[in-house]
């Protein structure tokens, strides 16, 4: 349970930092580019499910019942980290995608 909580907390820290950077990039590019927030939202809607699917499909080490608790703990840590970091990673990618928006006239 501690591995799950630790992975979740670290993932939330990653989400806070990278999500904040993504929003800051969008705020900055929103001043000079049109439709920055629409692009940010659209890219988040596309990238977030892809991040979650990537965490789900990652080939974790197999665990046999009744043993391999260290491997199971590592798998839980990685899953919690991945799921909790996914929104921030999506926001950072969306913030970088706003650089591709056309400039305001």
Task: Walk me through the structure.
It is elongated, with a radius of gyration of 17 Å. The mean pLDDT is 93. It has 105 residues and is mainly α. It is 78% helix and 0% strand. The protein has one domain. It has three helices and no strands.
Summed up:
By secondary structure, this protein is an all-alpha fold. The chain is built from three helices and no strands.
Key features of this structure:
105 residues, mainly alpha, single chain, 3 helices, 78% helix
The number of helical runs is 3
Number of domains: 1
Distance between the termini: 54 Å
User: Element order, helices and strands?
Assistant: HHH
Taken from the alpha-carbon principal axes, the silhouette is elongated
Low-confidence stretches: none
How helix-rich are the residues, as a percent range? over 70%
Task: Itemize the secondary structure elements and their pairings.
Layout: H1 2-32, H2 36-57, H3 69-97
């Amino acid at each position: 349970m501690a591995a799950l909580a630790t992975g979740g907390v670290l993932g939330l820290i990653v989400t806070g930092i990278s999500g904040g950077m993504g929003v800051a990039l969008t705020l900055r590019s929103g001043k000079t580019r049109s439709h920055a927030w629409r692009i940010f939202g659209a890219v988040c809607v596309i990238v977030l499910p892809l991040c979650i699917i990537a965490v789900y499909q990652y080939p974790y080490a197999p665990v046999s019942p009744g043993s391999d608790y260290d491997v199971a703990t590592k798998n839980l840590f990685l899953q919690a980290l991945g799921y909790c970091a996914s929104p921030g990673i999506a926001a950072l990618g969306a913030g970088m995608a706003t650089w591709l928006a056309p400039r305001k006239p």
